Amino acid sequence: xxxxxxxxxxxxxxxxxxxxxxxxxxxxxxxxxxxxxxxxxxxxxxxxxxxxxxxxxxxxxxxxxxxxxxxxxxxxxxxxxxxxxxxxxxxxxxxxxxxxxxxxxxxxxxxxxxxxxxxxxxxxxxxxxxxxxxxxxxxxxxxxxxxxxxxxxxxxxxxxxxxxxxxxxxxxxx
Length: 174
Hints:
Blueprint: H1 2-7, H2 16-29, H3 34-39, H4 41-47, H5 53-57, H6 61-70, H7 77-96, H8 100-105, E1 113-114, H9 128-139, H10 147-156, E2 160-161
Parallel strand pairs: 1-2
Binding site for Zn(2+): 5, 163, 167
Pfam families: Adenine_glyco
InterPro entries: Adenine_glyco, DNA-3mA_glycosylase, DNA_glycosylase
């Protein structure tokens, strides 16, 4: 958890495959703790070929069932099927936008939102922006993308910096 906090969380990323990975992992977290998902991250990376979007989009029901039964991922069939449908939705987005990156980062005008919270209790679970992005993703066929999951995703990929202001990893302290 500490390594994730220090090296990944709230660090802006503009890599389609990494964005897709974190979207899938955030969806897998629904109803669970992030530490459970991080503990299974390597199993997800192995099962989904490092979250290769094209590979994931072509997975069959049988292949998803084999992953569910034979790998160390979270065993929820709906969450696993969401990886496939989200990959298909990302590929569809790429025909309309240059990339998944371009689609997502337009919501923050290409710039990270930097919050200056003094205490973790101030950090919201969702915002109007996460509600809008969630709604837009759902319209495009994405699954497990509710506004709370999407706010967490936006933090994870650095669209939002929600490190508390005293944290050495807050943008103003780097």
